[in-house]
């Protein structure tokens, strides 16, 4: 993926300097390419770690947050018919979808740390992270969808299909 290419171009010193920067409010930044690259790297690292966990552990046993039950219950109340096996960009980012997702996400604003942090999500639950199978969503959308996939058995095939990989070293 393009994001792993970015991490090889940035040295450890740049990444360390970026760690403090990323904790500041997004309002302080314009479209700074180095900040965008650091966010992309952080999102890719999160995706790699999560996918390795899926490859190693029965997804039904995973706890992603201390609030998993509340997130899952609220998600299925708001999105009872959303088919999670193969999502589309329209399911997450169309005007109609945004009108449903926005209030869902906002209810977790003071509950889930970094609830709006950009996080990579696999569109097809049977596939791995790739440029074609990944979309950027908010952290709470990731939690809601992946909790449902884990509990509803949609991530069960990952462990038998894929093996854990070494994570990218920055």
From TrEMBL:
Domain Polysaccharide biosynthesis: 35-159
The protein's name in its UniProt record: Polysaccharide biosynthesis domain-containing protein
Domain of life: Eukaryota
One Pfam entry name: PBDC1
GO cellular component, one term: cytoplasm
Species per Swiss-Prot/TrEMBL record: Timema genevievae (Walking stick)
